[in-house]
Amino acid sequence: SHTIPPPERAEDAMGGNPVGWFEIYVQDMARARDFYEAVFVVRLIPLKNPDPLAYPDLEMWAFPAAMDRFGASGSLVRIPGMPSGGGGTLIHFSCVDCVTYARRAVNAGGTLLSPKTSMGEHGYRATSLDPDGNVIGLHSMQ
User: Is the pLDDT assigned to residue 12 strictly greater than 50?
Assistant: First the structure.
């Protein structure tokens, strides 16, 4: 068997952060934008279609990002043929208190899947279902 020696620093393995970008696939972009903007109290930013010939119906809206800070940004994506809904990957959004964000998710049309739960020294989490059936995690240290 072949083993790969572990890198000495996280930066050597993944460029500093394990996630560089994420995409949440949606079917109704207006509904999805309303949901995420209400939950996180942000304005999503439209992204230019990088290849209109190959993807004429692609629509992307990005979460605001501070590129010089820890973590990653990503976008909502609507593209024909790409289903939304739970598919085995769970994105956890950082927040001050996951109870507040879970409440916002329900008020914005989502469904609470699990209430605030302790993860010991790693803080707390709650999970919600967005209106397109995607499961999102909400993580906080309080």
Answer: no
Higher pLDDT, 2 or 73: 73
Cα(18)–Cα(7) distance, integer angstroms = 13
Q: How many CB atoms lie within 10 A of CB 130?
A: 23
Residue labelled with tokens 């000495």: 8
Q: How many CB atoms lie within 10 A of CB 50?
A: 9
pLDDT for the residue 125 = 92
| Location of structure tokens 């899947």 | 113
Give 67's pLDDT tier (boundaries 50, 70, 90).
Answer: confident
CA distance 15 to 58: 28
Q: What pLDDT does 1 receive? A: 52
